[in-house]
Amino acid sequence: MSSTHESTPLSFSDMGLTGPVLQAITDAGYETPTAIQKEMIPHMMDRRDVVGQAQTGTGKTAAFALPLLTRIQGGKCKKPQILVLAPTRELAIQVAKSFETYGKHIKNLSVLPIFGGQDYSIQLKQLHRGVHVVVGTPGRVMDHIRKGTLKLDDIHSFILDEADEMLKMGFIDDVEWVLEQLPEDRQTALFSATMPSSIRAIARKYLNNPVEITIKTKTVTALTINQRYLLTSGLSRKFEAISRILEVEDFDAVLVFVRTKIQTLELAEKLSALGHKAAPLNGDIQQSHRLRTIDQLKSKAIDILVATDVAARGLDVERISHVINYDIPFDQEAYIHRIGRTGRAGRSGQAILFVNPRERSMLKSIERVTRQKIEMMKLPTSKDINKKRIENFKAKISSSLQADTGFYQKLIQEFLAENTVSGEEVAAALAHLMQGNKPMLLPEDKFRKEPAAPRRRDQKMVRTRKERRPSALQLPPEEGMERFRIEVGREQGIKPSNIVGAIANEADISSKHIGRISIYDNHSTVDLPYGMPQDVLRILHRVRVGSRAMKISRIDMPSAPEGNPAGKDAGPKKRLRRKGQRKHNRKSAAA
After folding, report:
1. Nearest CA-CA partner of 541 in 493, 497, 485
2. What is the 8-class DSSP label of residue 449?
3. Which of the listed residues 327, 349, 379 is the one where a domain comes to its end?
């Protein structure tokens, strides 16, 4: 793969784009192409196949949409000419809207997003009328191709967007099937943030001598995003933290990420109770409702969206000024995609990450991958909040003074003439009337102390008489995990796969995030991500594994239950005990 361009044009007008497309670029306020646009548009204009590697938020949609729109045969010819495959419905909608924006000066241009969850009749009606650009998810695109409602004869350009996400979501076989149905003389462009071997194999098999363009950046996340983290402990502390942060931060719109669908509903409801305009967004919400929620976020009817990773994929709302990771993501790439919802296209943004002390390793891992230091922030105090409330109160007064207050001035003058009070007293009374009985300012902080440092190994643990010393050493949970007991075991014929399946299905947790499982005679233990929501645990408590309810409960201080776990060799554990005993003896001698 090689490039035929020796020099890179510096402006959109140098790239051979048509007048209507250039006019749309001007309307959008774009002045200088991004790095991937500079490199890719000339090759796309030359009708070369292209493989582009760039992170989200770099302007790659415009890199393929702008040159392809110059080749659209508008007017009465309304056969599909451009097909774009996207991994999620949200991204499909976003890309389709970008085509509409860039092609708004092209006469009679028709763009159609197609995806699962939307009524077939809507899509069939528009396909029958005729469209120029189709942007869809693999499953729904395949359905229309098989039904014959999506004709591919006139497709001259095919775009595979976020190919690595297609791979992760299991769509690669579907992508290859679609590629095999397309005309051989098409132009193909493949975009991916990473280039695993399977994606390169597709490029070699289906692309014709493609140009490969890699946009290298010093940092994976945008420099326009200010990243901070806050140490929290426990669910009540996290909610207290987000409540205070939302009081002192100047935000336009906030996207809050949580791990489970249940949490989106619970947290959105709690934030609404505090007076915020908040709504949930998760995969169980009907597509029509999800689209309406996003529109409400854009129109400022909603200011806070509480979402899961999958539901927010491809979400591009300009007014999102803050991304709050209420739950730390399970992997670094998820963090990158999350905070990429703000600070896009040169705009500034704020990203705040809640970190439990036991999750510090994931924080460091995120910093290594993003190659950026995430600064620690302090929890806003009552003094900070009170200062902000006073500032907001004064700002409301200043704003009201700009309005026509003549009628009220006359009323106040009459009241002053009739009563022996000062203007300040009247203003204070009106402020009290507006505030009601709820105090404006918070009392002095009465926080619980931050969690104490982890217990040192040489400190003795107090044991009750009923608690028996374990007969075998059980390794503690890994960082970011905590241990739970399940009231089913070997006697009930339970295997680790039974426990994994039950938890993954009910808690909506990927199996790769379920930790060590130990099976005993009549119970088991399992390690799960730290800070599991109580609602999820209540559901798991009732879930049946085999013939018995799981009755899951948290183990506060990990200790080995009686008996060796099924299938475990006690030999290495004895060696660990001997090693620990020798270390204890050395410390005693030194003392």
Report:
1. 485
2. P
3. 379
Nearest CA to 340 out of 44, 94, 76, 13 is that of 94
Residue 115 lies in a domain: yes
Note whether 137 and 230 are same-domain residues: no
The secondary structure of 39-87 as a DSSP string is HHHHHHHTT--EEEE--TTSSHHHHHHHHHHTT---TT--S--EEEE-S
Q: Count how many domains the chain has.
A: 3
The rounded distance, in Å, linking the Cα atoms of 358 and 455 is 13
Alpha carbon 450 to its chain centroid, in Å, reads: 28
Same domain, 61 and 204: yes
Domain of residue 502 covers 481-571
The one-letter code for the residue type at 70 is T
Counting every residue written for the chain, the total comes to 591
Nearest to 440 by CA among 484, 387, 376, 504: 387
Lookup result for tokens 């183990």: 555
Same domain assignment for residues 144 and 281: no
Label residues 479-492 b or e (16+ Cβ within 10 Å = b): ebbbbbbbbbbbeb
Contact 95, 135 (CB under 8 A): yes
Residues 113 and 250 in one domain: no
Average pLDDT over residues 41-51: 94
Instruction: Classify 209 in phi/psi space as left (phi over 0), alpha (psi -120 to 50) or beta.
Output: left
- Asked whether residue 373 is assigned to any structural domain, the reply reads yes
Mean pLDDT of the chain: 81
* 176 close to 166: Cβ distance less than 8 angstroms: no
CB atoms closer than 10 angstroms to residue 51:
25
pTM of model > 0.70: no
Q: What is the mean pLDDT of residues 59-69?
A: 91
Q: How far is CA 219 from CA 36, 68, 239, 373, 458, in A?
A: 15, 30, 31, 10, 42
174 & 208 share domain: yes
Do 338 and 291 lie in one domain? The reply is yes
Average pLDDT over residues 265-287: 91
Whether 85 and 140 map to the same domain: the answer is: yes
Please give the residue that has the higher pLDDT: either 36 or 304: 304
The phi, psi pair for 510, rounded to 5°, reads -60, 145
- CA–CA gap between residue 504 and residue 510 (Å, rounded): 6
Of 214, 245, 274, the residue that ends a domain is: 214
- Between the alpha carbon of residue 409 and those of residues 133, 187, 395, 412, 426, the distances in Å are 59, 70, 19, 5, 12
> Do the domain assignments include residue 440?
no
Q: What is the reported pLDDT for 254?
A: 97
CATH number at residue 537: 3.30.70.330
Mean pLDDT value across residues 219-240: 80
Q: Are residues 18 and 156 in the same domain?
A: yes
Query: Mean of the pLDDT values across residues 481-507?
Result: 84
Q: Two tokens at 379?
A: 């929890």
Per the CB < 8 A criterion, the answer to whether 186 and 156 are in contact is yes
- Is 321 inside a domain boundary? yes
Specify whether the backbone of 345 is left (phi greater than 0), alpha (psi in -120 to 50) or beta: left
Where does the pLDDT of residue 443 fall: very low under 50, low under 70, confident under 90, or very high at 90 and above? Answer: confident
The four Cα atoms 295, 296, 298, 300 give a dihedral, to 10 degrees, of 170
Cβ-Cβ contacts under 8 Å for 528 (sequence gap 6 or more):
481, 482, 484, 503, 507, 509, 513, 514, 515
User: What percent of the chain is predicted at pLDDT more than 90?
Assistant: 36
